[in-house]
């Protein structure tokens, strides 16, 4: 497939996802999406094509606070890890998408690791 006309972000996302598929070993994927106002994360079982657990700054208990900072990303990472462990998932592969592993994405990953997810 041609990458002509794709943005650098889209190319980085595709390159990252294909590398993850090659080394995932059947583990679920922790996918992160970051927008200007919010951050979203979900654990996806690609074999079945379903979401196992998800968390974001749009949830009712945290909606009043800002979603575009490191503190919010840390809270989302912790809540996602707890939801994934409740669903019986402890090992995942981290899919940063096209985002750099820096700032809010890194804070989410660190919080998820500290809350018990292994990746």
TrEMBL record:
SUPFAM superfamilies: Translational machinery components. This is one of the proteins that bind and probably mediate the attachment of the 5S RNA into the large ribosomal subunit, where it forms part of the central protuberance. Part of the 50S ribosomal subunit; part of the 5S rRNA/L5/L18/L25 subcomplex. Contacts the 5S and 23S rRNAs. It comes from Sphingomonas populi. Signal peptide: none annotated. GO terms for cellular component: cytosolic large ribosomal subunit. One of its GO terms (molecular function) is 5S rRNA binding. This is Large ribosomal subunit protein uL18. HAMAP family: Ribosomal_uL18_B (MF_01337_B). Residues 11-33 have a biased composition (Basic residues). InterPro entries: Ribosomal_L18, Ribosomal_uL18_bac-type, Ribosomal_uL18_bac/plant/anim. Belongs to the universal ribosomal protein uL18 family.
